[in-house]
Amino acid sequence: MAPSLPDPDDAREWLATMTLIRRFEERAGEMYARARIGGFLHLSIGEEATIVGSARALRSDDYLISTYRSHGHALVRGTPSENVMAELFGRVDGCCKGRGGSMHMFDLARRFMGGYGIVGGNLPIAAGIALASDQRGTDEVTLCTFGDGASNQGTFGETLNLAALWRLPVVFMVTNNQFGMGTALRRHSAVTDLRRKGESLGVPGMRCDGMDVCDTHAVVSQAVRQVREERRPVLVEAVTYRFRGHSMADPEQYRTKEEVAEWRARDPIPAFGELLEREGILDEEQRALIDARAAERVEAAVGFAENSPFPAPESLYDDVYVLDQEVRGAYSVRTTSPQTPPAPSQDGTEEIARGAQEIPQQMTTALEAGEDAS
Ligand SMILES: Cc1ncc(C[n+]2csc(CCOP(=O)(O)OP(=O)(O)O)c2C)c(N)n1
Ligand SMILES: [Mg+2]
């Protein structure tokens, strides 16, 4: 049975957000080609329904954690496109002050917990976030998205086992875009029915059509509800396709143009737009307006990013977490401020003690700055 449509206002917002993510990433790709953006750039073009459908199943006090392919996750959580673009440009007004770049988006106030370059690295972190929610006695849920390739990592099994054992409130969502870099699913995973991969670990699975925002929303909403009420993790497989290469530098020799064209014919954005037109929720003109607004917002974001300065060179070590014998005693210390670390003792205990004292202070500063709404 086809999932029912959301309220007209929600439906328009879903379409607008998917369109914003698409236009944002197309423009980011152009900016990368023109060397305005450095480092890596992984686009989720084609996967927008998995992002919007799943994130809209969350409450604002739930957590979302993603991978290096996460510009859309920041945007769907409400991080202004200006700050996401400035982050790509490595500028001070980026959501991580220009220090993270494409792979390390983060927005604590909106409970978007990143942005990780290590494949599978976000799964144990999601378990930690969920454990913290539990210990604080809240009913918050953490949605952890990762790729089909990441489902082969050791962290997948370790985290799902622990999450099931400790009844942690996590929805694990494997975004099956058919590839891990240039390796097709059937060539990297013995089990290709990914929703089943958690069964032996005590995590039941569900599947949604990741090209259909309504189906993704319906299935992830059910998973979120179940996790929130029963305090047991669930695994959702969202079946989708990566329209572009793995990153910007990908000759794509591992797939045929015909295969890409077949999936592009199911593009989730026009599919949803057409559905809304057929249902009388939007007309052609309103659809065009949604697209024009998204393009305008992206242009404004590019202008904002270009005008934002690069971080000052002397701020290089600000916010750097260091605890090492080699690096004299600094533990989250602002090296630009005149602080003299104590002389290290032979075994480093003094530094550890000093570090331990500084943790609460760092957290207090972050909370005072309003970085966490709770
Ligand atoms: C631990 C680790 N191993 C390998 C890599 C290199 N690497 C980066 S992305 C990637 C593929 C991951 O594929 P998948 O999980 O399906 O995510 P997708 O890129 O399709 O979103 C690999 C192997 C890495 N970043 N981290
Ligand atoms: Mg993949």
General description of the model:
Mean pLDDT is 90; it is low at 348-367 and 370-374. A five-stranded parallel β-sheet has the order 1-2-3-7-6, with helices on both faces. The chain folds into two domains: 8-307, Rossmann fold, CATH 3.40.50.970; 314-368, no CATH class. Helices cover 43% and strands 8% of the residues. The relative contact order is 0.14. It has helices at residues 8-33, 48-55, 71-77, 81-88, 122-135, 154-165, 185-188, 213-230, 257-264, 268-278, 284-307, 349-368; strands spanning 63-65, 142-147, 170-176, 179-180, 183-184, 205-209, 234-239. Magnesium ion is lined by residues 147-149, 177, 179-180. Residues 147-149, 177, 179-180 line the site of magnesium ion (MG).
Radius of gyration: 22 Å
CATH architecture of the largest domain: 3-Layer(aba) Sandwich
- The assigned structural class equals alpha/beta
CATH topology of the largest domain: Rossmann fold
The ligands bound in this entry are: thiamine diphosphate, magnesium ion
Tally of helical runs? 12
CATH class of the largest domain: Alpha Beta
Count of beta strands: 7
Gross geometry: globular
Order of helices and strands: HHEHHHEHEEEHEHEHHHH
What is the average per-residue confidence, as pLDDT, rounded to a whole number? 90
What fraction of residues sit in β-strands? 5-15%
Number of domains: 2
Largest sheet: 5 strands, parallel
